[in-house]
Amino acid sequence: MCDEKKLTEAISNVQVGLNVITEFVAAYALPGRPIANMTFKTYGYMAMSQGLTFSQDLKLGHYMHVPPIMMFSVQVLATIWGGLVNVGVLYCTLLGDPGLMIYRGF
């Protein structure tokens, strides 16, 4: 899906909205289920957005004559590191304040 979108954008300079594409796929695959549709849309949009950003960075590295294996390995390491940092912050936030998830009735 990312390849077709990037090919269209590269040739015609017309950007297709990712959220619209994932909405169509989700509505076709899961008719009559709005929560499942929105969940699919969220995950589909984020995966396609990250994939497109990943390929844009590889293209920039190609223009700068950086070896592709080096670009790929650095991006994979940065992705793993970012995921670990996000999970670490989540755990520190939730474990640091035990009453954080309790509704206090403002």
Strand proportion: under 5%
Let me know the number of strands: 0
- The count of domains is 2
Low-confidence stretches: none
Rg (CA only): 19 Å
Multimeric state: single chain
Biggest β-sheet description? none
Number of helices: 4
Overall geometric form: flat
> By helix and strand content, what is the structural category?
mainly alpha
Fraction of residues in helix: over 70%
- What is the H/E string? HHHH
CA(first)-CA(last) distance: 45 Å
Q: Could you tell me the mean pLDDT? A: 80
Question: What's the gist of this structure?
Answer:
The protein has 106 residues and is mainly α.
Question: What do you see in this structure?
Answer:
By secondary structure, this protein is mostly helical. The protein has 2 domains: 1-66; 67-106. Helices cover 77% and strands 0% of the residues. The protein has helices at residues 2-12, 18-29, 34-63, 68-96. Helix 2 (18-29) packs antiparallel against helix 3 (34-63) and helix 3 crosses helix 4 (68-96). The longest helix is centred in the middle third of the chain and has 30 residues, at 34-63. It is flat.
